[in-house]
Amino acid sequence: MGATGISKELSASKDVTSTQASDIDNISITSQVTLKSAHRKVDKRLLGWYAFVYLIMRIHVSNISNSAIINLEQGTGIKKQLGNLSSSQWAMALSIFYYPYMVFEPFATLALKHFSPSVWMSRIMLTWGIISMCQGATQNYAGILACRLFLGAAEAGFYPGVLYHLSFWYPTEKLPLRIGFFYACGMFSGTISGLLAYAVSFMNGTGGLAGWRWLFILEGIPAILCAVYTWFYLPNYPETVKFLSEPEREAVLGDLPKAAPTMAAETFSVQQALDLFKDPTFVPFLMIWIFHGVGGWGISFVLPTVIYELGISNTAISQIMTMPPFTLVFVILLSLAFLIHTRRLSPWVAGLGVELMQIVCYILLITVKNPVAKYVFVMIATAASQSFFAIIWPERIRAAKGTTTAGLAIGLTNASCQLMGIVGPLIYQSKFGPTYRVSYICSIGLLAGCIAAVLTSWFFVNKGDSKGLEETVEEAEAETAEAKAS
């Protein structure tokens, strides 16, 4: 073959290679477009609905705090009508919700996989709506305790169940902004709850019922209606939904890592459960949720009372003044989630920054005397505390490998956090008001412990990432060697 022929052959070969590379690029672009289209559909049908329901669910959780000061001036407050409840009795009424919530949460999270998300989530919504309305009929201390106990059992598994369900659909690197949005919508409920409590306070005496009774009754109805919609329309798994085309379904499934939970996997694997307990990140993550839950969230359970005892407003206006802190949560959390999602900020750095911000606010609340300044610091501390968990959750989920491991890790971690509802109201009892100096000192110590736990978890997660990267490189080298040998 002459030089000209060789030159033509090489040129043709280059053209073929170039064409193949171009085809691969086109396939990659097409696949990414398909995946984005699929995720947009899933965001609307799954994430959007969960965010709306979580907003309603958080109203249920926070309405007991709002009810504490409704119509106090008229002499029809909940504490008086239930038998002149003491500070410790009211703290128990707040905290008893979290005992069954904590116990049942790990099992309730795995139950989502066993019964299917649409069935299990609709059950949760239906029972919490009915029991929430029953709170409006209570006549004494024992009655409110019983309702709160059953309400905790009914709601157990919703929040961790949502995170678990999302892990069947999205890889963990695409969860920060989505979990941030979901969580921010739930926290925004504090704004709506305060506004509803303010409006419902003017229904005092309507139909012979006190305002706090109407609050529980009216806020229970939406959950029941949501249960009906969820039963029929909540998407279960990528493999079963009809609103995705086949290419979109394949794109969603292909985007998931090998260790992600799957519909076909067994609900409970003993080996995966043992692997979870042996994982060095297991205990540090639990400590994060316990320390921050009690130290950071404690004030949120009695926020209307804390604001009222500043002495700058009456009970009705105090309800309105609970709105800015929760609106600020929405802004801070979405901003941090966006920065983390776009890889401009590390979730660990963001989490540490939020914790330090709370500590500074609590120190200032101890030292500053001006009521208006104290309200500003209460607002910032509340907003910072409720922005934290959503930032760290994707890292907790990422550290769990497998269907059982993910379900148990999410359920147990969130269950440990329920100590916030058991211990938090005790730390922030009204007997420590109006200064709450003891309460703030306790929060500072607990948040310092949380910072230590965050640093420990960060170290072990990075160590696990390095080990996983080494194993991936070794597997790739082994495959290359086999290919050359064959």
Structure in words:
With 486 residues, this protein is mostly helical. The protein folds into two domains: 25-235, Growth Hormone, Chain: A (Up-down Bundle); 269-477, Growth Hormone, Chain: A. It is built from 21 helices and no strands. Helix 4 packs antiparallel against helix 5 (117-134) and helix 5 (117-134) runs antiparallel to helix 6 (141-155). The longest helix is centred in the N-terminal third of the chain and has 65 residues, at 3-67. It is globular. It starts with a helix and ends with a helix. It is a multi-pass membrane protein. GO terms for molecular function: transmembrane transporter activity. Residues 46-465 form the Major facilitator superfamily (MFS) profile domain. It comes from Pleomassaria siparia CBS 279.74.
Secondary structure layout plus pairing:
Blueprint: H1 3-67, H2 78-81, H3 87-95, H4 98-115, H5 117-134, H6 141-155, H7 158-166, H8 176-200, H9 211-233, H10 246-255, H11 270-278, H12 282-297, H13 303-308, H14 315-321, H15 323-341, H16 347-367, H17 371-385, H18 388-398, H19 403-417, H20 419-427, H21 437-485
Membrane topology: Multi-pass membrane protein
GO molecular function: transmembrane transporter activity
Protein name: MFS general substrate transporter
Assembly state of the chains shown:
single chain
Helix content: over 70%
Number of strands: 0
| Discrete helix count | 21
The poorly predicted ranges are 6-10, 16-27
User: Roughly how many Å apart are the termini?
Assistant: 31 Å
For the record, what CATH class of the largest domain applies?
Answer: Mainly Alpha
**Architecture of the largest domain, CATH level 2?**
Up-down Bundle
Proportion of beta-strand residues: under 5%
The coarse silhouette is globular
